[in-house]
Amino acid sequence: MSRFWSPIVHSLTPYVAGEQPVISGLVKLNTNESPYGPSPLALEAISQATADTLRLYPDPTARDLRAAIAESFGLDANEVFVGNGSDEVLAHTFQGLLNHDGPLLFPDITYSFYPTYCRLYGIAFQQIPVDGEMRVRLDDYRRPCGAIILPNPNAPTGIGLPLAEVESLLRDRPDQVVVIDEAYVDFGGESAVPLVRHYPNLLVIQTLSKSRGLAGLRVGFAVGQRPLIEALERVKDSFNSYPLDRLALAGALAAWKDREWFERHRELIVASRQRLAAALRELGFEVLPSSANFLFARHPGKVGAVLAGELRSRKILVRRFSAARIEDFLRISIGTDEECDRLLAALGEILQ
Ligand SMILES: Cc1ncc(COP(=O)(O)O)c(C=O)c1O
């Protein structure tokens, strides 16, 4: 607290990011990063961009990257917006598209940055409880509201929504913006991007942090029809004209074009997820059905905080949330098979 703070600062509840450890040798399964990568072509492009040209500002319109993303979705470059991680794209979306007369709706168990943005931008919100199986029930979103945001697959549960259900919500809510946050869609979700053509109220947000192994580069994007994208551009150009630096633009473009790397590594992660889920169930865990690069699991015989603490003392990091209903769950990012085996060995020991 300080008398120098602007009034709004007193009412903020900042997001708490997962631990980025300073000591080495930890098995890091706590922030849903990729255990692989990134594409060697991305590294090559970044090193090429590390040149005398760094004295120049980057392209404020990120033209080449937006064109490449648009092309792969059959869209126009001006239907794509890029930002410094999808967190920044989300922030601009909350400010530019989700502040209306009615409350913004999102699940009670979801990405915990959403309520943080609402407080930052003064957006009224209502959290809709997920059901007993931790599923988002879209019927509960058919109520008066200002806008809707849903991650698909949801985080931290990993549970995906069928595209037909998303489309029926879009059809029912033509006067509200519906944002689908697809940070994890490449690991088995059904993307709403093909619906962008048909629904002027739909914005889809994705990231290169997870399935492209580029969490450290900070690149995310949104796709939607021109009026929605224009709102994001207006917010961005009132905030920071150059959210992506020259290295990020070069690396993201090369990573995006390396389809082969992308397909191979997402398949590896999905296979490891299936293997890890089966092994956890054998250890007695309840594991929610995941379409993401993480699992959400709890053990009936162990309190979540104790389990997470015992793993940490064995140099294995997983994420745990203290919110009601999920305090005993661990969110476990999918590592390499070797990392997953270390986790399973440690859990076997702890549960003995
Ligand atoms: C649901 C969801 N959306 C968005 C993000 C932000 O990702 P980034 O800012 O790295 O693109 C995350 C990060 O973990 C997430 O879980």
How does this model look, in words?
With 352 residues, the protein is α/β, with parallel strands linked by helices. It has two domains: 7-37 and 260-351, Aspartate Aminotransferase, domain 1 (Alpha-Beta Complex), CATH 3.90.1150; 55-258, Aspartate Aminotransferase, domain 2 (3-Layer(aba) Sandwich), CATH 3.40.640.10. The protein is 37% helix and 14% strand. It contains eleven helices and twelve strands. A seven-stranded mixed beta sheet has the order 2-8-7-6-5-3-4, sandwiched between helices. Strands 9-10-12 form a three-stranded antiparallel beta sheet. β5 (147-151), α6 and β6 form a beta-alpha-beta unit. It binds pyridoxal-5'-phosphate. Pyridoxal-5'-phosphate (PLP) is lined by residues 32, 85-87, 111, 151, 155, 181, 183, 207, 209, 215, 220.
Entry keywords:
352 residues, alpha/beta, Aspartate Aminotransferase, domain 1, Aspartate Aminotransferase, domain 2, 2 domains, 7-stranded mixed β-sheet, 3-stranded antiparallel β-sheet, 11 helices, 37% helix, binds pyridoxal-5'-phosphate
